[in-house]
Amino acid sequence: MESNKLIELLEKMLRIRHFEEKVGNLAARRMILGSVHLYIGEEAVAAGVCANLRQNDFITSTHRGHGHCIAKGGEFRFMMAELFGKSTGYCQGKGGSQHIANFDLGILGANGIVGGGMPIASGAGLSIKMRNTDQVAVCFFGDGCCNNGVFHESLNLAAVWNLPVVYVCENNQYAVSVSVKQASLIHDYYLRKDAYGIKGCQVDGNDVIAVYEASKEAVERARKGEGPSLIECKTYRWRGHYEGEFDRHYTYRTKKEIEEWIDKCPIAQFKAYLIENNIITAEKIDQLEEEIKRELLEAVAFAEDSPAPKPEDALVGLFENE
Amino acid sequence: MREISYADAVVEAIEEEMDKHEEVFVLGEDIGRYGGAYFANPKLWKKFGDERVRDTPISESAIVGFALGAAITGMRPVAEIMFSDIMTVAMDQIVNQVAKMRYMFGGNVKVPLVIRTPIGGFHNSAAQHSQSLESWFAHVPGLKVAMPSSPYAAKGLLKTAIQSNNPVIFFEHIQLYRLKGPVPEEEYYIPFGEANILREGTDLTVVASAVMVHRVMNVANKLEEQGIQIEVIDPQTLCPFDKETILSSIKKTGRLFVVHQACKTCGFGAEIAAIVAEEGFDYLIDPIQRLAAYDIPVPFASNMEDFAIPNEQRILSAITEFLGK
């Protein structure tokens, strides 16, 4: 893999990490309201997968969706403005954290309903096939989605219709508090590929190169019209299910377990790898991080300075005028 | 003018729009070589093939959700759910996804999606295949709701629905599929939000949809023999709803009687009654009346079903009593 591509992967992960840390901080200070679900610890998945996508490829995302949005090209300031509920946000303040979309970037929306995006991404795949383009649709979802009916309906029908869809399971091992072990006898969800007769694999979701390589293969297969794939990325969410969960997450997992996963930080691992292989220096990385932090401060300022929507703007936009 | 059936009018509307627009396609259960659960008319499949007439497995959330994903990425799908009762299986996709998509994402996307589904049931279809759930969907902001009562309306409204860039829930009445009526050869569209005055009258305004329109018309013809003039209005679409036509009718008649096949409680008649109470109270000579199915699941046995859902006799008695004649 070329050096600049590797550095891009690192940059994407850092952008997600710093954005999420900033958002966590702003949520704690009640400057961002509503439910906020942070992606910290899972950055390698969004970054690794989206590095294979073009702007006109599609993704659907989840309630834990900031990382996907950033990886697909979403800009800090419009995302931040949306989280602040401002009219300059991607959805003009109507969506918030769980409902960011940008159709020009192929981001068909984060989703507040677990599994909600599965048939939508699949339908985008159907559209690609019927319009006969070489686009690809990627569906991000968590382990919590794997036992929902739409998982089955979507993978089955996408397989039957041979659609260009890559299903990316972010198995962070907990659906809020219920562990994969409580939820299914099959703990390796990629095995379900065989139930639908499609390709699939499991990768270390904290290893960005592994994620990149596995999804590269799946994306290329989809582009060539060779059908859908299921990729399971084993990873871990460092924070609570949502900001504000605080110590309640010790009701379902131990401090020790969280610390073990923090030791397997996808970013720290990748930084070490890049430095060791003389692809980038530690100083350069620091510089990169400073730039990202500066851009974030500007994004927060943009969000704060942006006008709030007028209350009556709530009445606009339900239907397209006809 | 030639006469065709309501079912053929539906097929013709889809065919014309598929001819005009490459991006229109249909998906649902048993709609291909089988020709649809009720139509037995594989015309679309024969003409357009598997690619544009897509048989699906029994996966209703996928039918709606795949259609939605296709709609927001350049296609114009017409999805079919075999019975409106089964719409309940796909409610997340319909209510949380389809209806919210445009608004929630800041008005930045078009959702040209039609979901066709039959209401009302055949006779003896019992509790899970006979419901009229239109008010559920009219209650959800973001969905347009159409409910044609004739072949002419079915074709014109469906063509408008397919051309629309907004999601439409299109309710067809199973008992009307075989009904024949005049449908011009020439192309036409019927706009949403325009009620149809089927019969003018001065004594009473009756609002009815779908199959109830026909029962009410028969009753109105009988009452005319007694010198009673009933104005019959079919709203045609519940969202948007043409309240102006109904209010101006009540201004003339002073009385409102709403008939529907759905259960009474929270049925769309409640909404019509509320609108008229709020905006047309001064026109009313008598209190508003509703006649609807009893608040029970639809029973199987013929005589119980006939008892549960307003039939002509019940409509006639209720109107006669209402008018004090």
UniProtKB/TrEMBL annotation, chain A:
Residue runs in coiled coils: 278-305
Pfam families tied to this protein: E1_dh
Gene3D superfamilies with a match to the protein in the record: 3.40.50.970
CDD domains in UniProt: TPP_E1_PDC_ADC_BCADC
Organism lineage string: Bacteria, Pseudomonadati, Thermodesulfobacteriota, Desulfobulbia, Desulfobulbales
GO molecular function: pyruvate dehydrogenase (acetyl-transferring) activity
Protein name per the record: Pyruvate dehydrogenase E1 component alpha subunit
All copies of domain Dehydrogenase E1 component, residue ranges: 12-312
InterPro entries: DH_E1, PDH_E1_Alpha_Subunit, THDP-binding
GO biological process, one term: pyruvate decarboxylation to acetyl-CoA
TrEMBL record, chain B:
Source species of the chain: Desulforhopalus singaporensis
One Pfam family of this chain: Transket_pyr
GO molecular function, one term: oxidoreductase activity
UniProt keywords, alphabetically: Oxidoreductase, Pyruvate, Thiamine pyrophosphate
Entry coiled-coil feature ranges: none
Transketolase-like pyrimidine-binding domain: residues covered: 4-179
Cofactor: thiamine diphosphate
Keyword Cell inner membrane: no
Protein name (Swiss-Prot/TrEMBL): Pyruvate dehydrogenase E1 component beta subunit
